Amino acid sequence: MAKVPKPSELKLEHKFPETGWMDTPAVFSPGNFSYPGKAKNLKVLGLANPREWSPTDDDWKLPSDWKKILLEGLRERLDKYRSLKVFMDICVRCGACADKCHFYLGSGDPKNMPVLRAELLRSVYRKEFSLAGKLMGKMVGARDLTEDVVKEWFMYFFQCTECRRCSLFCPYGIDTAEFTIIGRELLNLIGCNIDWVVGPAANCYQTGNHLGIQPHAFKDMLEFFVDEIEAVNGIRIEPSFNRKGAEVLFVTPSGDVFADPGTYTLMGYLMLFHEIGLDYTWSTYASEGGNFGFFTSHEMMKRLNSKMYAEAKRLGVKYIIGGECGHMWRVVNQYMDTVNGPADFLEVPVSPITGTRFDNAASTKMIHIVEFTADLIRNGKLKLDASRNDNHIVTYHDSCNTARGMGFLDEPRYVLNSVCNNFHEMPPNTIREQTFCCGSGSGLNNDEFMEMRMRGGLPRANAVRHVHDKFGVNTLSCICAIDRAVLPTLMNYWVPDVSVYGLHELVGNAMVMEGETERTTDLRGEPLPGMEDNENEDI
Amino acid sequence: MDIEHHLRNHKEEISQKWFDLLTCTYPQESVRLLKKESNQFANPVGSTFRTAISQILDEFLGENRAEALAPLLDKVIRVRAVQSFAPSAALSFIFGLKTIAAGVLEEELAEGEVGIDDLRGFERKVEGLGLLAFDVYTGCRENLFEIKVAEIKRNTRRLLERAQIIIGDSDSE
Ligand code: SF4
Ligand code: SF4
């Protein structure tokens, strides 16, 4: 019988091995990986090697020529993306990026250091594409591409949220997110991907949105919200669907349509557009702003992005407004123009209410609802009663994609400060460009990955806890649908007294609409500040 | 003078040793990070551990109230409960306090200021702390499962509502 170990022995029995990283294989255990892509979803998307498999299996059922596929794929991408080639060669391993990754900070696993994450791919590049690596191997950090290396790639490229925080601190501007993007693309060539990414991508490809909600159901859901708004302020809103000739097409992540608390943010959009009398339409076909194709490959991202534009063309709108989302905007801001643009059949967005011309969107013809709303407020076009949000002591989480991906920093803060009276920033090294990721982006917001998500979200939550303790912050606001889905979970574990609100939910609370009945509750049906007694009488 | 009094005199040393013991359960590269005296937001785990350990010691060597200790232990254990440790490895640092106490009291023990019985008594107290830590750990793991369920519910409630599985049931959140 095994002896019960003494405590002094136990402390040595931790899972972290003491071998060098190259000799330490990836160990898949519950909570640290996402389930693999289902064969049926791969088939829908025309992706390679559809099969049923699990990362915990010894045999991953790779195609027989997997090594050739990967090396050719890498060569092709090195030729195609100059940045990749440069990033492969210029890292001096200074370590400035090492402790900047939220996954590393929360897990303590060295392979979550950005420099090491990139090295997983770079070591193979050295071996196969550099003379020194061919001759001297390990001595110069080169190694063979083996099945264990593939497993390691799968583990760590799906433990990176492509948030780019690390790149901010690299003196050479090396963007580890690009290694992850390319790494995932290569893995896709041999059928190694995760279902939480390919499932939604397949749904979006077939039905128009990640959840696969069909047109009639999508319309029903919106009509629910119309009823709920009417119950709150007596105003009946009549959104239109697939209406040709509308001035604007509005597209938002489908998370806003089915997942709380995004649903309340969506009510905010409906109220805003109604109040200003915007001539706009929803589409039940381009019913997804998010783009999980981005987490698969450049090609898949292009395919899903093109849908919004095809629909804008079909309906004959002038331009597109997009809802509160993160990666949707990274795609629009960083890639759309080169992959599907320029959208010459549309017009440069001009706000019909203020006359402001959004030249920043001159080529993509798509603006973010937060800049649209900020412009309305700046021009005094909205009647706002910020005291309706007085029960909220608010802080703001910059989504990596809107903040680092597109430099969208001040507009959301301007809107927030207009719709609520109590706003406190988190510490400077955790916000704006330096914001900490929610820990669940880039398709990692699945429940089987929960432990890793809690590790990755720890630095963000730690900063929220700080303002919670210092200023009594009880509300974490954000402008990203993934944030709205995952931050409540993160808060629930780390800072349970803090609730999550989309920015336009707070706008919807504060907006005084023409013809509204006396409001006693917010959009969640909870009493407005000072109305708590009314509420009791009702009961 | 009771043993706690003597231990309080060595608090800095105990804190440091206990912190070292806790951090040495991480890989070497990461021990360096955890020990870095940097900004609390740049090194969240290290600074949480450092502060919590000092607070736990104050309470444990002082009034030793379970209701005050549990939230302090929680600060450390909540982190360890989601990292890749077996439950035993996540909590083993607690028991290390026995060895640390004996080590710092070497002189007092030699000079008879602290008796071996006092030390045994203290060790039993540490075992009590270990049991409390076990409750905290279990609470964290239960929380982890609850949040999974709550997330799935949030993501699907509206669809269920539409399917009229839930009719006007606002308590379902
Ligand atoms: S900061 Fe840049 S150069 Fe330094 S190790 Fe990281 S990626 Fe390499
Ligand atoms: S992109 Fe973000 S998640 Fe990926 S290595 Fe860099 S900091 Fe970590």
Relevant terms:
heterodimer, A: 539 residues, mainly alpha, Rossmann fold, 4-stranded parallel beta sheet, 3-stranded parallel beta sheet, globular, B: 173 residues, 8 helices, 75% helix, elongated, binds iron/sulfur cluster
Question: How is this structure best described in words?
Answer:
The complex is a heterodimer of chains A (539) and B (173). Chain A has 539 residues and is mostly helical. Chain A has 3 domains: 7-30 and 48-192, no CATH class; 200-378, no CATH class; 386-510, Rossmann fold (3-Layer(aba) Sandwich), CATH 3.40.50. Chain A is 47% helix and 5% strand. Chain A has helices at residues 7-10, 39-45, 66-80, 82-90, 102-107, 114-129, 131-136, 147-157, 165-169, 176-189, 195-207, 215-233, 255-258, 262-276, 298-315, 327-339, 369-378, 400-406, 410-419, 450-456, 458-471, 481-494, 503-510, 532-538, and strands spanning 248-251, 280-282, 319-322, 366-368, 394-396, 475-478, 499-502. Chain A has a 4-stranded parallel sheet with strand order 2-1-3-4. Chain B has 173 residues and is mainly alpha-helical. Chain B has one domain. Chain B has 8 helices and no strands. Chain B has helices at residues 3-9, 11-23, 28-35, 44-60, 66-80, 87-104, 106-110, 116-162. In chain B, α2 packs across α4 and α4 (44-60) runs antiparallel to α5 (66-80). The radius of gyration of chain B is 21 Å and the shape is elongated. Chains A and B meet through α1, α5, α12, α20 and α21 of A and α3, α4, α6 and α8 of B. Bound molecules: iron/sulfur cluster (SF4) (2 copies). One iron/sulfur cluster is lined by residues 91-97, 114-115, 170, 172, 174 of chain A.
